[in-house]
Specification:
CATH superfamily: Isochorismatase-like
Domain Isochorismatase-like: 18-211
Shape: globular
Helix content: 25-40%
Number of domains: 1
Organism: Nocardia alba
Largest sheet: 6 strands, parallel
CATH architecture: 3-Layer(aba) Sandwich
Distance between the termini: 17 Å
GO molecular function, one term: hydrolase activity
Order of helices and strands: EEEHHHHEHEEEHEHEHEH
Bound molecules: dicarbonimidic diamide
Keywords: Hydrolase
Protein name: Nicotinamidase-related amidase
Number of helices: 9
Structural class: alpha/beta
Length: 228
């Protein structure tokens, strides 16, 4: 078992039953000129996540931890997008409309894919999800079960929407979740702060919170043990 200093208490995990989950690090949310910015958001706030997350991803790969990427998006005919979701947001830039990086949040489009800095490599799992949570209408539960994963190191965007929804879904399904604070991002500083507090409040009601430095140090120890 590996132990990480975390809030509200130290977090222990077994690297062999742990997955690193990267939620929706997609161009549509993170690139200047993309969908996220078209909604009036400052993407610079999300982009602060990229460097620390690249560090955690490299450490996870070196330690042989299972890596799972998710992408929020829809089929080209939008048959998997509820009309209620389609109606939300900016009327001139809706899901399925033509955006700067292709049709917005449509599978197969450039903007729907993961940013170059964190692109999946061979052997990593990519889960396409139509909702905010990574368990809803996806194969994630089956994938985790098949690999005997019990613990999730959760990263990605946005903290209060897809990260929170996924952590809540995972918590209800019995997974232990550690959210890596500087590897999750929100367009709203207030939501970032409160979103993280809500995870670890009341004795880890949804999970634990730690910084990337602590996670990388723990993963590096695992790597050293594996390669010794
Ligand atoms: C949003 C997400 N915010 N990945 N998606 O619509 O959090």
């Amino acid at each position: 078992m590996t132990e990480i200093p975390a809030t509200p208490s130290p977090f222990t995990f077994d690297p062999t039953t742990t997955a690193l989950v990267l939620i929706d690090m997609q161009r549509d949310f993170l690139l200047p000129g993309g969908f996220g910015e078209s909604l009036g958001n400052d993407v610079a706030l999300l982009r602060t996540v990229i460097d620390p997350l690249a560090g955690v991803l490299a450490a996870a790969r070196a330690a042989g931890i299972t890596v799972i990427h998710t992408r929020e998006g829809h089929l080209p005919d939008l048959s998997d997008c509820p009309p209620s979701k389609l109606r939300r947001g900016n009327p001139s830039q809706r899901i399925g409309d033509q955006g700067r990086f292709g049709r917005i949040l449509i599978r197969g489009e450039y903007g729907h894919d993961i940013i170059d800095e964190l692109a999946p490599i061979d052997g990593e799992i990519v889960i396409d999800k139509p909702g905010k949570g990574a368990f809803y209408a996806t194969e994630l539960a089956a994938v985790l079960h098949r690999q005997s994963i019990t613990t999730l190191l959760v990263t990605g965007v946005t903290t209060e929407v897809c990260v929170h929804t996924t952590v809540r879904e995972a918590n209800d399904r019995g997974y232990e979740c550690l959210v890596i604070a500087d590897c999750v991002g929100s367009y709203f500083p207030e939501f970032q702060r409160v979103g993280l507090s809500m995870i670890s409040a009341q004795g880890a009601i949804f999970g634990w919170v730690a910084d990337s430095a602590a996670v990388i140090a723990a993963l590096d120890t695992t790597t050293a043990t594996v390669t010794a």
